[in-house]
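The following block was generated as part of the benchmark described in Methods. Ligand: succinic acid.
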Amino acid sequence: MGLEFLPGKLRREQQVTLLRALRDVMDEAPLFTPTMPRSGKPMSVRMTNCGPLGWVTDKERGYRYQATHPITGRPWPAMPQMLLHLWDEVTRYRAPPEACLVNYYDDDAKMGLHQDKDEEDFDAPVLSVSLGDTAIFRAGGRSRRDPTRRFELESGDVVVLGGEDRLALHGIDRVLAGTSDLLPEGGRINLTLRRVTKPG
Ligand code: SIN
Ligand code: FE2
């Protein structure tokens, strides 16, 4: 099993329920602007997390997982139940996800091609959920020389990177402003659920 694209996986009503839960997450753990290791250059997305671990990055300490919000110092809020169920249903992995990264893209935000490789466990897939405006998602192989495919990710779409594509390069070329009315403020939310440690 490699890259799986599940368009329309979440119905509108489920998207609304999930968004409501994410509003609570973002109230408790506000979005922050991550910065790149060494250069300290700000990323164009803003992010937060829920679940026992969260992915963060800054100039001084680089990419990592930690149990607390970098600004408030508080533990990340719990992962909404709906996401735990979705993970079980879609991945059939033997252990629950430990981190849910919440990325908010405004109209100008994008994300360069990268691999998700800060986890100890690459047996578990990465599960991504899109909400709000449509994004142009690009995914290739493990090498920058490999060809890439382009997907339009709409609100409610799910992508799974597992098996041979667990370490595939992927990124967001751009967000198509005004393509969804789910978020009144516009823009796009992407969730990436990951297992970080190997299940005991
Ligand atoms: C990511 O790779 O962290 C985000 C992918 C996406 O926004 O769809
Ligand atoms: Fe990623």
